[in-house]
Amino acid sequence: MSPQLPFLSSPLTSHEQVIDRACRIGRVNRLARVVVASAEESDVLAAMSECREAGIADAILVGNPDNIRAALAAAAISHDTFEIVPAEDDEQSALFAAELAGEGHADVVMKGFLKTSTLLRTLLKHEHGLRDRELLSHSALLYVPRYGKLLNVTDGGTIPAPTLQQKLIVIANGVRVLRSVGVRTPKVAVLAPAASVRDCYPETLAAAELARIAADQWRGEIEISGPLTLDMVLAGPRALAIDRSDPVAGDADILLVHTLEEGNIVAKTLIQFGGAVFMGVIAGARVPISLVSRSDTMLNKMASIALAVCLADYQRRDFPALPLIDPGRAEVRR
Description:
Rossmann fold; five-stranded parallel sheet
């Protein structure tokens, strides 16, 4: 079936525009269906209720019916607002959520009151047909008011210390997220402790090699530069009075970090001290995976679900994914 809603002709630049796009998808096509695994979590249910009222998405709740109804009551939501699918435990909740998504009954999978590892392990079993890439990765899409555009910090949620090959997949997943909000040729900054290659900083050597490989193999699909420091990524060389021409510095769409801890710190610092609005999604599967935490504001939760809806709409349109790079062609050059 051809999409009824025209795709984006220009990039979205704020969380408000992401939420508006998700609402338009709901109005023109239908409300996206979010299956919540182990839905005995009042904060998640409150977010889904807000999304339903806003016209972003509806939900299917999987888990213990009595506990779900108690969580709905705690969130002041009527017990008949959402469909409830009974499950005996977290493993069965994850299984049923995977089956619903695999059979086309859900557009997004959302984590409720269960471990992330339990949910992801089940979703990636081959029998569910949800495996797209061999690696899932988290995108923290941030609206930073002073930056003027959306910035995808990745990966700060799933892969502790990615290898070179894993980082290439993280980039591919991050590009898909950016394209779902209209950024056709994302600019990728590879973060490092220095903006030039230095033997005393192995991260700079890795960043330069990664940037070289990605630029060579994905020519015309992305722009990439590295190593770059965080201040160069956000401000650009001119603002820092640095004599260097770089098309990515100061205008990046994706910030590729070296480790999970680094990504987590960068994203949370921008949120706490830069006034950023957070939208998070896990990409790399045939359906987006949404995770929100208790510490997220209601706006962050709604925006995160809206981003997952936009990504699901993008993937339904069967746009070609960024091709994966052959590991044999990604050997490190010295």
